[in-house]
Amino acid sequence: MLSRITQRQLEYFVASGEAGSIIGASERIHVSSPSISAAITHIESELGVQLFVRHHAQGVSLTAIGHQVLKEAKLILEQMMNLYTIASESMNNVRGPLRVGCLDTLAPMLTPELVFGFGRAFPGVRITLVEGHHEQLLKQLRAADIDIALTYDLVPANDIAFTSLAQLPPYVMVGEHHPLATQSAVTIQDLATMPMVLLDMPWSREYFLGLFSEAGVTPNVVMRSGNMEVVRAMVA
Asked: Is residue 157 included in any domain, yes or no?
């Protein structure tokens, strides 16, 4: 009977059981709620038991048998993943799922190469991308919701290993007709009196304001936004 239940259906069931709601599972694994609901219904039909109690607008809760099935489903998925590990090690090949978190502001630059470049180099890897600000990514790393995060080394985290991939100095973004547009470099003092549109995201905000503070000047912040594209549009 179990052969008629797929690995993907088990993954949807486990995600729902851990999230306590189908919507929560949908946001976590980036799969539509109807697909998850259909998978759960199929498993219940195959096993002939009710796995969840549905609460209108309040998510789902596991039944007694649902808790037992959830435990066994996790073991099955772990064993199935071990098959990939064994095969990968024997072939000296990288394969399996990889959940990658990426800082919102870096995502437009990095994710295309990550998906297509890395995907071509390691076709056996299934990449799932999660975007968020720095604080969100660290939280997801600690909760094991993602495997790796691409972000700035803004805040020391003793419980997270950080490897520097590149050194990116701060730069100034101005309109093409701005007086500073033709200069190759400027000082913080040059910027102090000019109207500034601040990227208002956790830690990014503190980082940029800290540049002015270290120079002993106060920035003239006239607008704030947590969306990089909005910041670009305001500057333009």
From this structure: no
Q: Which of 43, 61, 88 is a domain's end point?
A: 88
The rounded Cα 212 to chain-centroid distance in angstroms is 30
Residue 57: domain span: 2-88
What pTM did the predictor assign?
0.48
Tokens matching residue 82: 């071990």
Give the number of domains in the chain.
3
Tens-digit pLDDT profile for the chain (236 aa)?
445 888 889 999 999 999 988 988 898 888 889 999 999 999 999 999 999 998 876 788 999 999 999 999 999 999 888 887 776 665 556 778 889 998 887 888 788 877 788 878 888 888 888 888 888 888 898 988 999 998 887 666 778 888 888 787 888 888 888 888 888 888 999 898 899 999 888 778 888 899 999 999 999 999 999 888 898 888 88
